[in-house]
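Running co-folding for 1,3-dihydroxyacetonephosphate.
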Amino acid sequence: MIKFIVANWKLHPVTAQEAETLFKSVLGGVKGVKNVDVAVCPPAIFLPLLNQIKVKKIVLGAQNLFWEEKGAYTGEISGPMLRQFGCRYAIVGHSERKQYFYETDETINLKLKAAFKAGLKAVLCAGESDRGASEKEVAQILETQIQNALAGIPKGRLADLTIAYEPVWAIGTGLTVTPDDALKAKLFIKKVLMNLYDRPSAERVRILYGGSVNSKNISDFVQILDGALVGGASVDATEFVKIVKIASLA
Ligand code: 13P
């Protein structure tokens, strides 16, 4: 399966000028790199600007979306709105959204459905919070989160789904899971998908790792998983380009 590297810029950078410079530097760096898919998810307000920089190599994604298309929902942005500005992906259920914006399994499910309805592909995040969680506990947490997120979603949609295994304790901390634990998580996620749907549908879903990914550790993860969801290192163009290049060789 072709590797997939997703940049989650989170709330960076502050100015449109910086966003444009960063995007153009990444574009310049990954030009001509084959055998890897790349998505960049900037703050939504920069999407119209970045969408004007026409490129084939990188697709744009959103970090979040609302589940209704329109209505009295102050401050929200919907799937069809994102689509108009070049978005092809949406990250759904990121742990920072659960932590700071009270997202629940139920709203994540609504958002996943809304993303698919709008024609967006989804990068669904799942993972345990506690670094000390046992293998069994991690498996249980992943199963519950994934089952709830996918409730009522037909198997045909799995072609548009990527799952990012993001242990919360590894995000922004410099800590990562061991390659062995990443492999266990991937196999377990596949098993959950096979139980919920069937093997061919489960096989279509790319499984990424997220949490303190950088150019030094990416090769470990792309040997085992289908790619990575990159936070901090994705707003450093040099570092992100290195990550993409290493993934393209995996
Ligand atoms: P860091 O790469 O900064 O740890 O963030 C990971 C993440 O949350 C990506 O969505």
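Result summary
The pocket of 1,3-dihydroxyacetonephosphate is lined by residues 8, 94, 166, 171-172, 210-213, 229-233 (CB under 6 Å).
The beta strands are 3-8, 36-41, 58-62, 87-92, 121-126, 161-165, 206-210, 227-230.
Job closed.
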